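To: structure desk
From: M.T.
Subject: fold request, one chain
Message: Could you run this one when you get a chance? Sequence is below, nothing fancy, just the single chain.
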Amino acid sequence: MAIKIDEHEDQGTTVLVVTGRIALTECHGDLKNAVRGLIERGRKQIVLDLEAVPFVDSAGLGELVSSYASVKRLGGSLRLTNVNQRVAHTLESAQLTSILQLIEVPRTAGSQPVITR
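Reply: Done. Structure tokens follow.
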């Protein structure tokens, strides 16, 4: 099953809401391609909402790092939010938490994410 990626804007930041496992057998470069598309449209402030991502494998970590590098190279930022404990542990084990910044995004009454800076 492929991942699903929904996009919305919040105060000049593009939020990609990812649903599904970011894994070799399910992602197929979709996340990296979505980030590349944002860059091509001039969007360089990106947050990945991973609330509905139960698992990330090594291929998924590669997609995250590649996406981060693409955005960073152009002076932008790529941050992660709503990361569950399993995914956070995977990021920590791979020593990526110093690169892939985890941020808190409080929810409003309408449950739309609000980006904090």
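Reply (cont.): The longest strand covers residues 45-52. Let me know if you need anything else for the meeting.
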